[in-house]
Amino acid sequence: MVPEAERLVAVTRGPLTECVHRGHVAVADANGRLLYYAGDPAHVTFARSSAKPLQALPVLESGAADAFAMTDPELALLCASHNGEETHVQTAQTLLSKMGLSGEHLQCGAHYPFHRQTAQAMRRRGEQPTNLHNNCSGKHSGMLALALMLGADIAGYLAPEHPVQRRMLAAVSEMSGVPESDIAIGVDGCGVPVFGMPLAALAAAYARFGRPDGQPEARRIACERLMRAIVHHPDYLAGDDRYDTQLVRATSGRLIGKMGAEGVFAIAVPERGWGIAVKIEDGAQRALYPAATEALRQLGLLSDTELAALAKFHRPLQHNWQGTEVGAIVPEFQLRPAAG
Amino acid sequence: MVPEAERLVAVTRGPLTECVHRGHVAVADANGRLLYYAGDPAHVTFARSSAKPLQALPVLESGAADAFAMTDPELALLCASHNGEETHVQTAQTLLSKMGLSGEHLQCGAHYPFHRQTAQAMRRRGEQPTNLHNNCSGKHSGMLALALMLGADIAGYLAPEHPVQRRMLAAVSEMSGVPESDIAIGVDGCGVPVFGMPLAALAAAYARFGRPDGQPEARRIACERLMRAIVHHPDYLAGDDRYDTQLVRATSGRLIGKMGAEGVFAIAVPERGWGIAVKIEDGAQRALYPAATEALRQLGLLSDTELAALAKFHRPLQHNWQGTEVGAIVPEFQLRPAAG
What we know:
Two copies of one chain form a homodimer. Chain A is α+β, with helices and mostly antiparallel strands and about 350 residues long. The first copy, chain A, is about 40% helix and about 20% strand. Chain A has one domain (about 5-335): Beta-lactamase.
């Protein structure tokens, strides 16, 4: 019998649990050993944007970071699903200009910024979003940088067979320990390949990212440089009021986590050499941060102060249009140690 | 063992099922007999806005519809979670003015219209939403009408112990067959009580609404008058591009369905004297209309032409920012006949 998704988070309203979000959690070390889990840690799903830090590795390994004098905010933006705040858009633009390119070379497509106030202000001004506002514009800028370093075509970089995407698949395979041929490939919201793998393999990839001692020299240096950039500039990983940014801030960079669309979150725990991956089965973001924070709490990875700083992500209260509290989003699972 | 929520809808991306939405379906007749189900038909959840047509019954039974010369669009709006389109706002305003009241007497709170284009246009004009734009402004107008007819205080109508809410609870109890004391009470997004009951009881309430022969005279007349209003003016039940409106239109009024927040949908099938209720466990709206349409298909309640007209709600395709098709939302359950 295939293990089922487990109840991870309840949404209460008055006397009832009105909704339930099920899912899977896997905690692994850099050897790929499963340590703790909930639901089915072997559940195969797309890493979506939680693969971005792994996809940034071949960009750095190509020498692009030095060739284009990438700053730490720019490096953090390579790994980001950013808010499209002015500073994010400006940073992507500057990075592209150092490469002799512009937002028009990005093929991520345009969407209004995730950041509500920024999007509303643009709408009030009658302003259309550009590729630079796309939350993936940093990742796509990195893909163009890698294409330039490889002397590859910069027009066709979305295709799975393009040298840029081949390198990124290789890096994801090496970090996760899943053979390339076993990684399921889909198409992301921004047009590039996404990588499907068991949740425990994504956790292992993050364990290795956060504790890259065992990696080849160039890979180790790339992991450390990206982590340093994110730790010093968490605003560029996501932005105002976002969990990814707040998690780094609240823990003073002890923990680095990255969300992915459809309910994915992956966390590197360098101090223990662990990685954690969460998948909400139904893709709901409202359940993702409560589940991720609860996993961290159960693993003893958050001090009381840190947990308090993340309280509104851990157990968000639900309010109605009048501002009255009507319910809460409450984690309700228990991680189990893996056998053996 | 408590029956579990069942997989109702899959969200695919390329080669993988990326997300799953579980839930419950109940099909019952006007005698309260369970006919078909998926998941747990006894699952208790809040009816949310799918209770609105039931809540409108005591408004009509009080004589308010005649006293305030309510038109059919106004009657349909009493039952609506409307889009906040100009015509909805105008209709609520007119109804209130016939009662000598205005939008300021509504206590539903303000939110930007559900209708994206209307909301965006308001933001461009720097316009704030009012109580009239709230999707529940029709229901709240009906509550004020009932308060006036009862000679009750019109300021305190949100409270569960207010005569208006007592009448509505009684109507929901009578229609669903659930004793008042067994109905769980929570607070809705718009501040009024919401009613928690087994899904099969909600289905039975809709069966009775659609086939009210067995009801007391005043109730039967109220059901028939509301149905007629909705059938002739489905635009006022929801609005542009909304499933509730399209279901009535596609079936030329043979089926009347009403959504509720957090993944609830209830349908009256007058021709068979059946009611259908669907709950998506995680509350996702994207799974609700595929599940509801699939239930109707399996029950033989949609012709090929009607199913084709609802195709984009039945199996919506998923596109990325470039407009490329990346996956689909696909129902995957099978209704079972109830034992006995």
